[in-house]
Each structure stands twice: as structure tokens, then as C-alpha cells.
Amino acid sequence: MLPIKVPPLGESIVEATVSRWLKKEGDAVAAGDTLVDLETDKITVEVPALKPGVLAKRSKAEGEVVHVDDVLGELDETAVPATVGAAATGASAPAPAPAAPARASSPPPPPPQGESTKSSPAARKIADERGIDIASVAGTGRGGVVSKPDVLAAPTQQRPAVTRQPLGNGATPGERETREKMSTRRKRIAENLLQSQHATAHLTTFNEIDMSAINALREKYKEKVEKEHGVKLTFMPFFVRAACQALKQFPMVNAQIDGDTIIYKHYVNMGIAVASDQGLVVPNIKDADRKGTIELSADISEVAKRARDGKLTMEDLTGGTFTITNGGVFGSLVSTPIINYPQVGILGLHKTQDRPIAVNGEVKIRSMMYIALSYDHRIVDGQQAVLFLVRIKELVEDPAAMLIE
Length: 405
Known about the structure:
The chain is an alpha+beta fold. It has 3 domains: about 1-85, CATH 2.40.50.100; about 130-160, no CATH class; about 200-405, Chloramphenicol acetyltransferase-like domain (Chloramphenicol Acetyltransferase), CATH 3.30.559.10. About 25% of the residues lie in helices and about 25% in strands. The chain is built from 9 helices and 18 strands. The protein has helices at about 80-90, 120-130, 150, 185-200, 210-230, 235-250, 295-310, 315, 380-395; strands at about 1-5, 15-20, 30, 35-40, 45-50, 55-60, 65, 70-75, 200-210, 255-260, 260-265, 270, 275, 280, 285, 320-325, 345-360, 360-375. The strands form 5 sheets. A 6-stranded mixed sheet has the order 9-18-17-16-12-15. Strands 1-8-6-3 form a 4-stranded antiparallel sheet, with no helix packed on it. α6 packs across α7 (about 295-310) and α6 (about 235-250) crosses α9. The longest helix is centred in the middle third of the chain and has 18 residues, at about 210-230. The chain is globular, with a radius of gyration of 27 Å.
């Protein structure tokens, strides 16, 4: 028997939850087939079969918490799959006498759901949760692979409501309350948020930005950029560039505390908060301060897609020095973002909204956005925080100023 063990999960991750078994006991597997998905607080880890054989035992049930090197099950690499054995027996045995024809031949049983359809683990998980027959979903990925967006875009009639687990005391699903155990990722998110509040001197300052210049710039170039570079020109890369330049002017906001030492980062790994079905994740763009607007647009789009598809790597999620979160995409007008500890600053963007403002003594209707900077007051003074946010405002309201540096 070949033990199936929990692989290394990445930096600082010691436990995971068995999210879903993709194979049943007795199933034949080929080398490289995914046996089980493990959910950590940051990413989903696929555990493959190292050799061909038959899954003899599943030692851990779905929902159980496991640690690195724990045994998840056993693979019998000496077993011959039943289908292969039957074929070999039929080839060596003499042909049996023909039997009387049956009155009506029954159709062969349908293949197991999703077995004959190429699909990603995230797609299969969502399909199972929503009761969707993944074989009926058209795949748009390479080679016709069904991806998570394909399942989410399936017709609504294929999505029966998912019945949540009852209270466990005999109550029916129609009861007014239900209980659901926190996933490993959700628990870790809760722990990190509490740690950030308890371990930092948390404070937030606000400002507002006239988005008219950026709006005009985007309208002028977005079609050209999409046609020539294949990326959509959003607001985010402009804010990333502005933040990178402001961080060079105010390096304390890009620093980190280690005991009684301040670590200054002379580079910017820009974290971009992304909301996914599994919870909030913050992948980061490495060396964002060395990249131009088009390259940043492509990197942000790619990392956000991997986050939504559950394909982030540990490299994506470690090493961040500063974070930007955009609640405006959900309609948030004002908020106080929580610092992504152990970083000391996070920039919050919000909904762009037409408002009357005073311009040169006249009332004008302008497209305005509130922005917020939450910072660790232990090393970032209020003056630095306010001036940092003012610098962001200046750069975004006059995008040409970003070209000077």
C-alpha cells in the first residue's frame, strides 16, 4: 500500500481541511489524477496520485482538519483495475456458448457525473454544490475544459437551490435558522482580521478625488489598449502607479515592524484584495513599482482571474508590502479598511459618484471618489498619512504628473 499524505502546504501554513474527495474507494486511478482537494486558509491544494493503482482506503473524511504529512488514505499500486482484469480474462478464456437473445436490451448505465468531461476542480466543486450536471456545461477553456466561470454562467434552471445543513437536532431545512461550520479559510481570515486590530494602532484618514481626468484618459485610450494589448484599462493600474510613487516619497507607509526594529522595503509588492467564493484573498503584484500601466493592467487582470478560479499559488500570496482594496465595485461609498497585517498601510477605494463641488468659485458636477488610508500609528504619523493620501489625490487628478518620475 502506498500512503497518500498531505503535501507541504506553503509558508506558515500547517493545517488544511479535506474539501472534497474526487475518487471513491475502489476507483482505478492513473498517475497524476487528482484524488482529493485540500482547502487551506489561502489556496486550494490538489493531491495527485503519485503512481497508478486503485484507491484502497480513504482515511480522512470531507470536512476533517489535517496537517502536513498526515495520511489521507492508501493507494494499492499492485491492484489491477476491475475493467482491465475483466478484459484480460475475456481474452484468455474460451468463448462461451451464445446465449439466447434477450427480449429487450437495457441501456448501459450512464458514466459517473463529470468523469467523461474535462473540468477544473473548482468547476466540479461549484457544480456539485449547485446540483449542476457538469457534463451539460459547455467548456470554454483550452481543449474544451469546463472552468468555474462556465459553471457559474450555466442556465438558472440547472441551479436548484442548495439545501443547507439543518441544525443537527432533527429540524427540517425550512427552519428559521441553520448552522454551518466555518471553513479553514474563513477561520483564518477571522483570526488575521482580529490580529490586525489587536496588534496595530489602527487609524484611518480620508480624502476625495476628482476622477474627471482619469475618466477622460480611459475613454480616450481604453479601446486602443484593449485592441493592441488585449487588456481592459481599469482605474486600478492608475491607483497602483500613484501609490507606488507616493510610497517612495513616504517609505514609512511601505515599512514593517519586527519587534523593536523597523524594516524599510525599497520595493513595492502591491497587494490587490480580491473577493472570491472561498473568501477574501490578497494576491500581490511583485515589483509593481517597476512596471508601467499596461503591464500592471495585465498582471492585475491575470492574478484576479486566478484568485476567482482558485488557482493562486503561495508565491502570489506572500511577500506583499502594501495593499489596495476596492469596495467601490460593490457600491461602497465610504469604509475603513483593515490593515493586512504585518503591513502597516492599506488604501481603500470606493464608488465613483457624480456630486456637486466648488471649482474656482463655481458649483460644478464632477465624478468624485472617496479614498481612505488605514495605517499603523505606531510607525506612521498622522501627518505622513495625510500627506501620503494628498499625494495620491494629486497624481490621480493630474495623471501626467505620474510620467515625471
